[in-house]
Amino acid sequence: MDDLTKMSWDMREWREKEEGDPYSSCPRGEWLLWYAAKIKADRKKINAAVLSCLNTATLEEPLPDDVDRMLYAMFHKQDSVLLSWRAKVEGRVPEADTLIADPLRLRRWHIEKAALYVIKVIVDEDLSWAFAVAWHTAQIIGHQKTAELVRNWLLREDLSE
Questions:
Q1: Residue 117 and residue 111: Cα distance in Å, rounded?
Q2: Is the separation of the CB atoms in 22 and 122 below 8 Å?
Q3: pLDDT in tens, 94-105
Q4: Cα 68 from Cα 44, distance rounded (Å)
């Protein structure tokens, strides 16, 4: 069973047991963002949550230079740099044994993937990738911390449209 299938089963099991507001009790940030995208929650809040996830993960593990340049390109609308970086990262599939053997490389890979999904959420305006940012962040900072981070952004009143 792949991670996405397992996530959907685990999430479904949680939702069946849960009564009330899912934002207040959800144990996983990626589930919160998946739910927020599904119900078409405020885009500003989702964007803020995914950026905060990436930012928090980079406090634990500094951004690789190419990811830093990519984020600069995204915010400064340098489309050629952004397209070049996306093509490189989307096609990169490192050997699993290599990642497992090198924790630093694994953490950097998670940051790189989170950054790629931030682009898909913000630039492509595809909220369906928001959960992936949180999942990759959770691999670095933990699920509980990621859930608290996402919950705080989704429940903020001062970002409403």
A1: 10
A2: no
A3: 666 666 777 887
A4: 22
Q: Is residue 133 included in any domain, yes or no?
A: yes
Number of domains in the chain: 1
Contact 87, 94 (CB under 8 A): no
Give tens-digit pLDDT for 124-135.
Answer: 888 889 999 999
Residue 64 maps to a domain: yes
Is residue 1 situated within a structural domain? no
Q: Reduced to 3 states, what is the DSSP secondary structure of residue 62? A: coil
Contacts of 35 by beta carbon, 8 Å cutoff, 6+ apart: 22, 26
The helix (run of H) or strand (run of E) holding residue 3 is helix 3-17
pLDDT tens profile 45-90: 999 999 999 888 888 766 777 777 777 777 777 777 777 777 777 7
pTM: 0.79
User: Which structural domain range is residue 83 located in?
Assistant: 32-154
Q: Is 62 contained in some domain?
A: yes
